[in-house]
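Handoff note, outgoing to incoming analyst
You'll be picking up this chain. Sequence as last confirmed:
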Amino acid sequence: MEWLKGKVINMDKLIYLDNAATTQVYPEVLDSMIPYFTQYYGNPSSIYTFAGSAKQAVDEARAVLADCLGAKSEEIYFTGGGSESDNWAIKAAAEAYADKGKHIITTKIEHHAILHTAEYLEKKGFEVTYLDVDENGLISPDALKTAICPDTILISIMFANNEIGTIEPIKEVGEIAKENGILFHTDAVQAFGHVPINVDEMHIDMLSASAHKLGGPKGIGLMYIRKGVKIRSFIHGGAQERQRRAGTHNVPGIVGFGTAAKLAHSDMKKRSEYETELRDYLITRVINEIPHSRLNGDKIKRLPNNANFCFRFIEGESLLILLDQNGICASSGSACTSGSLDPSHVLLAIGLPHEIAHGSLRLTLSEQTTKEDIDYTVDKIKEIVMRLRNMSPLYEDFIKKEKN
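Most recent structure output, in case you need it:
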């Protein structure tokens, strides 16, 4: 990377295309939070009158979030974020239902909050089946049925993949789980607020979501737990969250989460249509104008704002650095694994070889993204990819072979 040192970064322009990593907090969300830092700062677990405003705000946010999922207020539990919710769902369910069996089913493309938790449970004597996905990142419902055995106690399949944007057949998975009397959890961190979710219609027993993926603050998430599901506390130490999750409530965060969810769901259809149109324009330009590029993930069954590409003969890290120098924020996959030099486990799972998976780029849009932003970005990607390829001996050899 010596050749990158001393390069001037263009900070006059900022195009943020990493909304799957985190989103900008909506002004309305921040406005709703501020009074609970400064004016209504009481602890909602306290019994005096001053704490009543904070408790009411928590209750109102809980009701809003429940309504967004078609759930009941008492089925919503606040957590510190999506990773905590995922850990809670998997570990607590395993513990609670271990007397029935020790077999869990998930997929090879889950977020590491699920995969690493599953690996932890394997060391504790649980058996985990990791379902394969097809070239678009979709699981096979038939393969899921085949994987179920008498010892299966939990199925955990993400709603939409955080890297390639593929939306899984969640309703069908829920039906299979219900028919077999198995708990079904879905990591909906990328999907909540972006696509419609109804926990009853989809037979979801547990669901994870996080505020910062939909214009809310970081550090606050939720766990939906269907009434009657027998899972225990994950954090001990207090009676908060109906004795299931100890710790003083993050009242400003909870209020912000509720406001963000309300805003996201109120304009979901319009926003989704706008982002989908812009996303498809981006995909068309990249695929048509940059040779040896490919779209990762399903073309239709994908999140409205997600476009993930691979470019042969380049390293994704170099592409990201050069995009950054041109004021474009992007990623090569999950922000949680940005320090890793290994290729994406998701891209390997859909069948890409290491050398191609290393050249990945994820661009995730928002309602603030413009067509001009996309045109500028695609033009820069074209320039950078060609520049990097011209420095690649592999590309040089490839061109020579093509000419021959």
